[in-house]
Amino acid sequence: MALKVALLGCGVVGSQVIRLMREQADDLAARVGAPLELAGVAVRRPGRRRDTDVDPALLTTDAEALVARDDVDIVVEVIGGIEPARSLILAAMKGGKSVVTANKALLAEDGATVHAAARANGADLYFEAAVAGAIPLIRPLRESLAGDRVHRVMGIVNGTTNYILDKMDSTGASFSDALEEAQALGYAEADPTADVEGFDAAAKAAILAKIAFHSRVTAADVHREGITEVTAADVAGARAMGCVIKLLAICARSDDGRSFGVRVHPAMIPRSHPLAGVREAYNAVFVEAESAGRLMFYGAGAGGAPTASAVLGDIVAVARNHLAGTRGPEESTYADLAVHPMGETVTRYHVSLDVADKPGVLARVADMFARQDVSIQTVRQEGHGDDAQLVLVTHRADDAALSATIQGLREMDIVRDVVSVMRVEGEDIA
Ligand SMILES: NC(=O)c1ccc[n+]([C@@H]2O[C@H](COP(=O)([O-])OP(=O)(O)OC[C@H]3O[C@@H](n4cnc5c(N)ncnc54)[C@H](OP(=O)(O)O)[C@@H]3O)[C@@H](O)[C@H]2O)c1
Predict the structure, then answer these.
(1) Is the per-residue pLDDT at 211 higher than 80?
(2) How much of the chain, in percent, has pLDDT values that exceed 70?
(3) Is residue 425 annotated as involved in ligand binding?
(4) Which of 33, 43, 75, 282 has its CA 20 to 30 A from that of 229?
C-alpha cells in the first residue's frame, strides 16, 4: 500500500520535492519498500505559476484540513517561518504523523516544543534540509557521531554572505558593491537582512550546537554579528596577513568542557585553512571530535534541487521507519550544558589603528593591551608620518578583555581611529 505524503508549501524547495518524487518514483518505492504518493499540496496562492507541473486537483489553501486527513502518513513542511508552520507541524504530530521540515527558523526559535510533540505522539521529526541545504550534516552529527564527543563545529552556513565576502576578497569590491552583484545574480534577496546580519547563520548555529553538545540552545543564545561592517580595508588587512574573511558559525566547548559558546561573526582565517577555500555561495562545516578527529562537510547550502535532495532523504528515512514500526532518534539534551556568554569566549584579535606620529605611541598602545591582560603576538607599522597605521595581532584572550581594550584604545588621544577590528580563528588547523 502506498504511503501518503502531504506537502505544505510549493515554492523554491517544495516544487523540487514534487519533481523528484515524480521523476524518481520507482527508485523511491524500491528503497522505501512501498510507493510514495502525494496526497495534497498546501499553498497560499493556488493560481500561481510553479517551477514544476503540479496536478491542480492536489492544490489546496486549507493546509489544516490536509494535515488532518486520516489517509496522510507523512507531512512535509516547506512553508518556512514560525506560523502557521508550527501549528501545522504540531497538528500533524498530534494525529500521529511524522514530519519532515526544512524550517531552521522554527527549530532554532522553538525546537523544544516541536521535539516534545514528536516524543509525546511517537512521531518522527527529521530536518536535514534545515542546515546547509544539500549537505548531510544533521544525520552525521545526530547518528554517525553519536558515539563520539564533539569539541567544535565551525562552518560557513550562509551562501549569500560567503558569496559577498568572496567577491570582496577576489575583486577588492566594497560590501555594498558585492551585495548589489549578489542581488543581481539571485544569490541575495531584495531584503538581505536575514543573511547579511547573520540571523540565518545564527539559527543554523543554534541547531548545530544543540545536536553537537546534547543541550538546549535557541537562536537567542547565539552571539551574532553580521558582515555589513566589513570593509575593503579589513579584507586587504586580512590578505596582508595571509588570511581571508569568512562569516563563521562557531559552536565550541569551553576548555573545561562544562559549557560551550555559540557565535556567528566575521573572522579572519588563514588561507591554508580548509574553510578558506570555500568560494562563492558554497557552504562547508568543519567538525572536530575526540576520536573521529577532523571532518569536513562541503557542498551546496541552498537552492531548490539541492535542498529537496535533503528533504527526499528524510522522507525515505521516515517512510522506512513507518513501515518498520520504529522511530528515528529523538531530541537529545541530556548533557544540559550551559551556553557561556560571548565575553568568556577565548579569541584572538587583529587590530589596525590610525595613530599620531609621535614618539612613545607604541608603548602607550601596548600598555592599554597589558592593562586588560591581553598579550600582543605581533605588531607591524605600515606607512609613515600622518599615514602611519599600527597593525597588532593578539594572543588568545577572553573576548571581554579584548573588547575592553578596543574601548580603551578608542578613548586614547593618540589613536585617531580604530580602523579595523577582526577576530582571528582557525590557526590551530591551518
Ligand atoms: N530556498 C532554499 O534554498 C532553502 C534552503 C534550505 C532551507 N530552506 C527552507 O525551506 C523552507 C521553504 O523555503 P522556500 O525557499 O521554498 O520558500 P518559498 O519559495 O517562499 O515557498 C514557500 C511556500 O509556502 C507557501 N505558503 C506560504 N504561506 C502559506 C500558508 N499560510 N499556507 C500554505 N502554504 C503557504 C507558499 O505558497 P505560494 O507559492 O502560493 O505563495 C510557497 O509555496 C523554509 O523554511 C526555508 O528556510 C530553503
Answers:
(1) yes
(2) 100
(3) no
(4) 282
| Cα–Cα distance measured from residue 184 to residue 181, given in angstroms and rounded to the nearest whole number | 5
For residue 321, what is its C-alpha cell?
Answer: 521507519
How many angstroms is it from 84 CA to the middle of ligand 1? 12
Does the annotation mark 167 as catalytic? no
Q: What value does the mean pLDDT take over residues 67-79? A: 98
Q: Ligand 1 mean position to 419 CA, how many Å? A: 41
Amino acid code (one letter) for 386 = D
Angle between helices 104-121 and 85-94 (to 10 degrees): 20
Pocket of ligand 1 contains residue 250 by CB under 6 Å:
no
Give 240-294 pLDDT, tens digit per residue: 999 999 999 999 999 899 999 999 999 999 999 999 999 999 999 999 999 999 9
Angle (deg, nearest 10), helices 175-184 and 159-171: 120
Lowest mean pLDDT among 72-81, 227-236, 343-352, 355-364: 355-364
What CA dihedral angle connects 202, 225, 167 and 296, to 10 degrees?
Answer: -40
> What is the three-class DSSP state of 233?
helix
- Alpha carbons 311 and 136: distance in angstroms, whole number: 11
Question: How many A from CA of 311 to the centre of ligand 1?
Answer: 13
Q: Please check if 9 is assigned to a binding site.
A: yes
Is residue 7 helix, strand or coil? strand
What confidence tier does 388 reach under pLDDT thresholds 50, 70, 90? confident
For 138-301, give the CATH class.
alpha beta
Give, for ligand 1, the residue of 58, 78, 89, 114 to mutate: max count of ligand atoms closer than 8 Å to Cβ. Answer: 78
Classify strands 338-339 and 259-270 as parallel, antiparallel or unpaired: parallel
Q: Give me the residue spans of the domains in the chain.
A: 3-133+304-324, 138-301, 342-429
Q: What is the pLDDT of residues 390-399, one digit of tens each?
A: 999 999 999 9
Atom 19 in ligand 1: residue holding the nearest Cα: 11
Task: Calculate mean pLDDT across residues 53-70.
Answer: 97
pLDDT of residue 121: 97
> Could you tell me the fold of the domain covering 3-133+304-324?
Rossmann fold (3.40.50)
| β pairing state of 346-355 and 397-398 | antiparallel
The domains spanning 3-133+304-324 and 342-429 adopt the same CATH topology: no
Q: What is the CATH number of domain 342-429?
A: 3.30.70.260
Task: Look at residue 17 in the predicted model and tell me its pLDDT.
Answer: 98
